[in-house]
Amino acid sequence: MVNNYEKVFKLFAKRYILVPLEIFQDPYRTLISTVLSARTRDEVTLVVSQRLFAKAPTIEALNQLPQEDIQTLIHGVGFYKTKAKHLKKLAHIVVIDYKGVIPNTVDELQKLPGVGIKTANLTLNRAFGKPAIAVDIHVHRITNLMGWVHTKTPEQTEKELSKVLPKKYWRDINRYFVSIGRQFQSKKKLLEFLEENSLILK
Fold it and tell me: Which of the listed residues 31, 61, 154, 192 has the most CB atoms within 10 Å of its CB?
């Protein structure tokens, strides 16, 4: 199959603008901010995460916080009550079962409350430097529009991309594609950008 991976990654790298949550690089902050980010704009997640980390700078400190306090601190993100419950349980499991160390495998991360494949892969990628494809709505939409995959859900996209995309691109796909998706938020503008740069496989 003909592909244009190198062309796409070169162009997206040139157009790259920092994604807000990339300021968090360590395992604890990366994991927690990504859990908080589900169904929430990055700008909101960033403010809420910083508020939480000011009170709970470590997983041990988070474990000490009552669930009600976590809920108050993260108010503003989508499903904050459910996320507060998840974070309280997650912190307890990491402190007790993992001696306070965030796990660094996809299987162990997904055992934690509120952690799905996207959050696990993003944490592995950003905090541990491991090649992992984290597929959010931007990655899902852009790879489908370009014809790299033909899938219905982000989960399907992650599976298909892992079969076709060379591993050297795995670490950058989320940050570059999220950045482009944020710059071209309407499907019309995104399509225009992709067509202008001849990035859609015929």
Answer: 31
